[in-house]
Ornithine cyclodeaminase (Roseiarcus fermentans), 351 residues
Amino acid sequence: MGSPGPGLLSLVPFVSVDHMMRIVWDIGPERMIVELAAYIEEDFRRWELFDKTPRIAAHSAEGVIELMPTSDGATYGFKYVNGHPRNAAAGRQTVTAFGVLSHVDSGYPMLISEMTVLTALRTAATSALAARVLAPPGAKTMAIIGNGAQCEFQAIAFKALAGIEAVRLHDIDPKATAKAAANLAGSGLAVVSCRSSEEAILGADIVTTCTADKRFATILTDNMIGAGVHLNAIGGDSPGKTELHRDILLRSEIFVEYAPQTRIEGEIQQLDPSHPVTELWRVLTGLAPGRRDRAQITLFDGVGFAIEDFSALRYIRDQIGRTGEYVNLDLLADPDDPRDLFGMLLRHRPG
Ligand SMILES: NC(=O)c1ccc[n+]([C@@H]2O[C@H](COP(=O)([O-])OP(=O)(O)OC[C@H]3O[C@@H](n4cnc5c(N)ncnc54)[C@H](O)[C@@H]3O)[C@@H](O)[C@H]2O)c1
């Protein structure tokens, strides 16, 4: 007699990269970003209910590995994510991630999922959600500085959620811009490839920065940003890793996800810790205003917060039954008598 197979309580649904890509194409990338934004907005509207902590970061000379936990009291989630700007040169992603969603009452995981693709989708969804309340009315053109892995996701999110019709691309590596322009060719967006950041921001109502560099970089200087622009800065997301000149921050109305984390990681690490910022959930719930007038410079200092990943995992959990895009992993030991873990091991002795 062979050993009995894993029992029902052993099994946890696992969504691989391949499953995730099938889910994205089943729903359609734009529609999925719109639906993810709705899940994120729903969770931001019940912000006060969540356990919140700045993410736990392990820094090295090459990059950072982070854990991002949160819970709404019934469901717990966390994401493992790295950020290694020099990875691309070795053929690896700058950012990779996976995550887990669990039942708080039993502590048993209900889902384990790839989150590299999902992070790009949720980051774009969050950026576009912020732009809906912060961008100047009638914004049609967005510049994207940094045309790596996140770029196209940002472009299609702003088309789907913020009415963007044209994107102006720039990267210090022209191959990255050519890649993004080719990928966006069938997107319905007008795409212009630019030789400099200065050229890219010409006529742009929204400027997205998504560069990767493990140091204080100055992608945008103060003289480049005129009245009325909305800045969506997502590449400055770690201590010592920023994209905007400090003077731009001093002229902007600044919006963040979770201030205690953004003060450590975001553009605002360059400012005094008491500098006023508004958390996005307060705008989405009507507790604080978004953009107040046409001339204002608004800045979404996005670093990525655990609740966005929780929402994204919640969304995927709701898709897997219908799509069947998962496999069950034999992840949890399940002895017949819960206290007889050693007995289970004995019964599986080979030979
Ligand atoms: N805020 C969030 O939630 C969030 C989520 C995911 C990624 N990120 C961050 O976004 C950034 C981009 O991520 P990615 O996965 O696209 O990285 P990536 O390495 O794939 O792409 C980064 C691109 O930036 C370009 N670049 C570097 N310096 C530049 C400069 N001075 N001017 C113009 N282009 C420049 C590089 O050539 C590269 O093409 C990273 O810093 C990452 O940590 C943030």
